[in-house]
What does this fold into?
Amino acid sequence: MSRLFVVATPIGNLEDISPRALSVLRSVSLILAEDTRVTRRLLSAFDIHTPLMSSHAHNEGAVAEGVVSRMLAEDIGVALVTDAGTPGISDPGSRVVRAAAQAGIEVLSIPGPSAAAAALSVSGFEEPEFTFFGFLPRGAKELRRKLQAMAGTIRLAVLYESPHRVLDLLEAVGEVFPEAPMTCSREITKLHEQTLRGTAGEVRARLLEDEKQLRGEFCLVLNLSGTQAPEAPEAVEQSAESRLLELLLAGMTLREAQDELVGRGERRNRVYAAALALRRVAADLLGEG
It folds into this structure.
């Protein structure tokens, strides 16, 4: 019976791979790998010799079509892996899964390591819900707009970032949420695993103290439970002059326009002053003294 196994692999420490994952990787006829060189090292560590095929972001659509056709024709099992972690979560894999499911092939999850879950588990935040955003937009304006949209709606935000851009991300977070507590985890499950705690500004300062810390992939957990949505800008009050002018343009006489505004509740002396101002403007435009 054809089956597609979505297999989570270690994000650092090879000992985190599950016995079930190893069993599946040995038993299937083919393993789809984001980078066959990376996966081959994993397989070699456990003496697994299953054939590999490359399936990454740039060829996944074509690979999915071909592999699904083969699975249906040959009735084989296939495993799907990425370089680290769980396929389809900020990694390729979704198109293969979708193609298999649409073809009626059973898709099974072989759960395991996840940087997001690991970072949440060591954050210490007690919020009952979180939102996973993965990698945020690269552009400065788009990034700040995305962060601002979280205020008042998101309790815990989980973000991924590369070592080359993490300082920019922390700077933007510090500008939008200067007081929000957060954790910043890197090298999760590896020898130099580290989790920094504090505000974005404090964490950024710690990283700048030692640039050796700017290595590995980062996972940030932002506690936004106390933040408020930005207040809408106050509406600019329309002047009595502009409202009189609107009524004049609609066809009223100046006297009719004055009576209309007074009838709407505008103070009579304010309307009278506005009418005088309009008369002066009209006189100046017409060249009258």
Remarks:
- The first strand starts at residue 3 and ends at 7.
- Residues 30 and 78 are 5 Å apart (CA to CA).
- The mean pLDDT is 91.
- Strands lie at 3-7, 30-33, 52-54, 77-81, 106-110, 131-135, 156-161, 182-186, 194-198, 218-223.
